[in-house]
Amino acid sequence: SLNEVPVGVAGELYLGGVNLARGYLKRAALTAERFIAAANGSRLYRTGDLVRWNNDGQLEYLGRIDHQVKVRGFRIELGEIEAGLQGQPEVREAVVVANEGPAGTRLVAYVSGNAGQVIDTAALKQKLGEALPDYMVPSAIVELEALPLNANGKVDRKALPVPAITSDKPYEAPQGPIAETIAAIWAEVLQMEKVGIHDNFFDLGGHSLLLVRVHRLLEDRLRTSVALVQLFKYPTVGSLAQWMERGAAAPTASSPTAGDDRALRQRAALLQRRKSAERVN
């Protein structure tokens, strides 16, 4: 059944009216797929375009519905992420793709800047994290002088460079048995050659489900009990090692920090996925 979506919510655009074509010439299968019957007896055409109404009563084009992907159990409209990127003043154009990597499917954004504007990819990722769920924030943002186009003038996704999974911080070797064990586990789970003491698990392409595996390996190899939420709260090798070296003391009352807020959002995403899985089962 078809349901209209409220203002601001993305949905697929359907066209109808007296000027609607009967179908595709000599392509019965495609006609049956794209031209559908509505409840009132009329016919509608599925455009495949992802749009949403804005507060001015205008339709905003977000992308193609066939660019919908599934990451970590969540169905994601890539057009929504692209719209978030293009809404930033320094970004001229943006495209988001889902790449298969050693740690599973990860989102990669490609952006080009407006003239005279400097793109800070770390700040751009932080802005997206404030507006979108954690699982919709790209693992990497790649700045290009211009997005590659095909002969039809559309973005050539196949021509986009595949970014290497590397840290944006200078490598500094972890010191001490706890830090070295944490770094080794991260490198194993993320399938990286090495992980430095200042590297952030999530910035390296890690996510909630991989962190569950890290949690299990940490408890097994360090022979200690660690609350999973602490791995969200201390996402770098150094910060987690320092917390564990202090004896994993009970948290004290303090005002929430940006790191705490991110940890809560990432933990909420994990819990949401678990609830969705329980409903399916």
UniProtKB/TrEMBL annotation:
<dbReference type="InterPro" id="IPR025110">
    <property type="entry name" value="AMP-bd_C"/>
</dbReference>
<dbReference type="InterPro" id="IPR020806">
    <property type="entry name" value="PKS_PP-bd"/>
</dbReference>
<dbReference type="GO" id="GO:0044550">
    <property type="term" value="P:secondary metabolite biosynthetic process"/>
</dbReference>
<dbReference type="InterPro" id="IPR009081">
    <property type="entry name" value="PP-bd_ACP"/>
</dbReference>
<keyword id="KW-0596">Phosphopantetheine</keyword>
<dbReference type="GO" id="GO:0043041">
    <property type="term" value="P:amino acid activation for nonribosomal peptide biosynthetic process"/>
</dbReference>
<dbReference type="Pfam" id="PF13193">
    <property type="entry name" value="AMP-binding_C"/>
</dbReference>
<keyword id="KW-0597">Phosphoprotein</keyword>
<dbReference type="GO" id="GO:0072330">
    <property type="term" value="P:monocarboxylic acid biosynthetic process"/>
</dbReference>
<dbReference type="GO" id="GO:0005829">
    <property type="term" value="C:cytosol"/>
</dbReference>
<feature type="domain" description="Carrier">
    <location>
        <begin position="173"/>
        <end position="248"/>
    </location>
</feature>
<dbReference type="Pfam" id="PF00550">
    <property type="entry name" value="PP-binding"/>
</dbReference>
<dbReference type="InterPro" id="IPR042099">
    <property type="entry name" value="ANL_N_sf"/>
</dbReference>
<protein>
    <submittedName>
        <fullName>Non-ribosomal peptide synthetase</fullName>
    </submittedName>
</protein>
<dbReference type="InterPro" id="IPR036736">
    <property type="entry name" value="ACP-like_sf"/>
</dbReference>
<dbReference type="InterPro" id="IPR045851">
    <property type="entry name" value="AMP-bd_C_sf"/>
</dbReference>
<dbReference type="GO" id="GO:0031177">
    <property type="term" value="F:phosphopantetheine binding"/>
</dbReference>
